[in-house]
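Sequence in, structure out. Go.
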Amino acid sequence: MDCLQASHLCGSFLRLILAVGAWGLPAQAVSPPSPALTKVANIFNPHSGPAELILEPTYLVLLVSLGIFLIVTGLLVYIVIKFRQRSPEDPLTEPPQIYGSYNIELAWTVIPCLVVFVLVLVSARTIVEIQDAPMPENALKIRVVGHQWWWEVHYPDLGIVTANEIHVPTGSEDGTRRPTHITLESADVIHSFWVPQLAGKTDLVPNRINHTWIEPVSPGVFLGNCAEYCGTQHANMLLRVIAQSPEDFAQWVVTQQKAPSIPTEPLATQGRRNFYALSCVNCHKIESTPAEGVFGPDLTKFATRQTLGSGVAPRTPETLRAWLANPASLKPGCYMPDMQLSPQQIDALVAYLETLN
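Output:
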């Protein structure tokens, strides 16, 4: 039995322990979360190839750690009970003095080394399996750039640029794989890309290109975040991976590739003029318009996104209005300035941005 087989066996044993511990609880207490939107990023509920490969070694590490904990705690309890004070004269009696034991010293040196060696082998095997996995020709290619504090997302083969929300296809019903290969870069400091239910952590390092891949097995919205402290709003550098069926993903691509329409409603038209007249165009880009900024998220299809501010709030007219009035109220320390807009300007800008779909 090799290390990986041992990890599979340990995983099955741990699942049995969890099932026994949950016996008798109400059904909803042990039912898995809905894949439609998983609010808790649960590594024990994987929905992608890399996350599944990571799960079995995780069980092995947990069981080994549990075993060490039980042994150490058991010995401690035994010693406390065995050598407790039994009479008032005990403190006056010197116990037998033992000066070293080669067998004990050998045991507490060799056994931990063997445990570490096994865990290193299992971890290394899993890392190689993930990093050296061959990508089929139909793999979707995505380039993700980390910024303080948002994610820039490029689909180079599709001509699509978006932000903070990554749309990917699942496999087909006939079993055809459709993994997504992700190239990771950083525009400023070290970030870390982590969507726990889809893959492990991978750092985004300035002046270096790293890679990861995901392969969602079912449609759903999977939450992730930056896992490397990168500044004031590190905790709010959130992202979403939206896994869709091949048909839904193809429809999303068609929508994203369409040029934005010019609004005809008076308030939205005024908002479009305000967008170009104010400093918005210095930071943001809208395809097929004079707005060519590169410092902030691309807003070409802003109204198709679920969130704003890199996931800090749902994209609704109310939250968008609050964001434009004072970005720091939702994301303190963010680089988007307070433009001191009037209520009329904010209403017009909200109307215009909601037409970008």
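Check: The chain has a mean pLDDT of 84. The chain has three domains: 3-35+46-131, 140-257, 266-353.
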